[in-house]
What does this fold into?
Amino acid sequence: MIHTALRAVMPTTYLNTWLSRRALRRLIARAELPRPVTDLIADVCARTHLRRSEQLDVARELTAHFQSGLESGASMEDVIAAFGDPKRAARSIARAKRAARHPTIRYLQHAILAVVLLSTSVVLFYAFTLYRYYAGEPNVTRNYLAEIRAPVLAIPDQDRAWPLYVRAIQEFGAIPREIARDGFAAGPGAQTWPFIRKYLAAHTQGLATLREAAGKPVLGFDYADLSWQKAAMRARSPEHPPGMDVPIADNPIVVSILLPHLHELRNAARILAADARIAAEDEDKQRYLANLEAIFGISRQLMSEPFTLSHLVALAVAELAMSVAREQVATDLLGDADLARLASGVARSPARASPGGMIILDLESERVIVEDILQRIFTDDGRGGGRLIEGELGDIERQFGVALPHPLARNGIFPLRALAVASRRKLQDQLDLAMAAAERDQRRPLSAHAQRSCDEEFAKLTDLGLDLAFPIYASMREGDGWAGSLFLTRDHVEAHRAALLTAIAAKRHQLATGAWPTALDQLVPRYLAQAPPDPLDPRSPLRIRTTKDALVIYSAGINKTDDNAQGINDRWLAPPNPGSQTFYDAGTLELWLDNPSTAPQQDDWILILLPN
Amino acid sequence: MSKLDRELMRGAGPAAVLSLLSSREMYGYELVEQLDQRTDGVLKMGQSTLYPLLYNLEAKGLVKGVWRSADSGRDRKYYHLTAAGKKRLARDAEQLTAFSGAMKALGLLARAPAPISHVPVL
It folds into this structure.
């Protein structure tokens, strides 16, 4: 009754749709038509799949039609036959009814349909992406830790230096508070110097052990054995119990391999440097030279390690030794034989130069790091390719403590990274290109720094999504340009070494003749195997010039013009913070090398000044 | 005479319905009967074809349907021509006349047919 009243007032409103199928059946039934006819009408209406209100309209019209037909005297069979095929009728009626809808409603329906289809596609695609990301398994075939440990474990115990370093740590014990803050980098004149002198005088055994360790042919540090840290901590801080041992997995990811020995060796070098300065003050040249030889020994041991980071520390240690050596070259402490001994240590550290005169760094660890990442978070199709998967990423993140706080967000979002990360094959190919460029670049001299391009090749790994696939890698790289900085550090050490060898040779000449040399030719071949090249103009040798106060060893600078040692005074090789690893303003140097026009006009680089 | 082919019917059907409605309003079944009888079966269309055609014409605003009670007391939907429908009918008549003239000129027609509105009701 309510339905009838509503229909009377609003015959074709959407209100009728709420009345659903019952209204349709009731309407058809009310027509009191024979069953086959009502079935036909219901069938046609259902087949249209129109809205309920539209179906009601159609049902109403068709019931009126069949009523008219039967009233005209036609038989039921005739009216049914005359109606035609219900399927075709339903299709035609539906098409016509839809075309009759208001355009806005049609557009809205299309838009809703489009949104539904798009949303469904997105959901399906997301589900597929999730499946591909979580269903894949990595194929970890290489155990890099085992590979780098194998040669270490093969070293006879008597040739390994590391156990002696550990003993030295225990022999030194706790570091006094007065020294602990600034460490042993302070030199004579510093406030902590008296404390350093007193402390080292009380630990001569530790110093002797350090020298013995530095004299061993190889370091022999086992990357899987960190048990020594407990003994070290106990010795340094007896009041604080050492922490738990953190077990190292059988095949850990390379980026997780800790190198705590680097800090210890740098510290050892500083202790030896401090004792060398004390020896110089005490005019104990044998101890002075022994300490410098030990520091050079540490740098050589570090250069034999398979990590680029170890080489960086090796360069820093060699630099420290050369800085200490420079302090005494112009004094009367060392005689000719002492200077020859010193020159021998300098020439061999941190490594012997290759025939081209360059220290060649081992960069393979950079390749190993990336390939190890690839084997742990990509599938392996057996042909060098594969797609990004979860793999071991979750475990590695937990290990580094960098996982996203909310697991749902992390597990829901991370698979989408696969859409922006290149395939394993592409990343591997780019890595090969970058490594080849790095090997070429490190063989370019300092003067050709502007042509070094491997950092751009390494940066392309980021473009291909490596940082996205393995976010920890980005934090390790410390920004773009790491390779260029590494090579500049190497160049710096080479230049320092060349200048120092020249200075030692000049001092020996002075001891022999009573005067500084006036040309490098006078030093070759007696004191120098060959004239060292100018680091900024390899076609020319280093330059020397005597003034009334000193002998100046200098480079012609970026403009390659000899300005008679006019220009930048003693900036390049003078460490801003004695003992620190940062020896020069690398940014400024790079700027001048990339754009020579920005370098000062008169820019002879004074490398070493030997006062009369 | 046999029914027209579907393609021809598609063009002629709407014009025929508009023409029938130009004389008076009719309901669906009546339209089917009139088309059959007045054209001697030539424009006979399946009853399931008529209603989609009417809905299309209604959507285009050429006809309008109104529910009313018939003498029998039952509801029927009566269709009548709108102003737009009348204009459309005039245009279709013009085009059909031109069409038949062209066919005659080509020798396809024995004589020019009488306008639809003059076909006698049987």
Observations:
- The beta strands of chain B are 26-27, 63-69, 75-81.
- The CA atoms of residues 5 and 69 of chain B lie 36 Å apart.
- The longest helix of chain B spans residues 83-105.
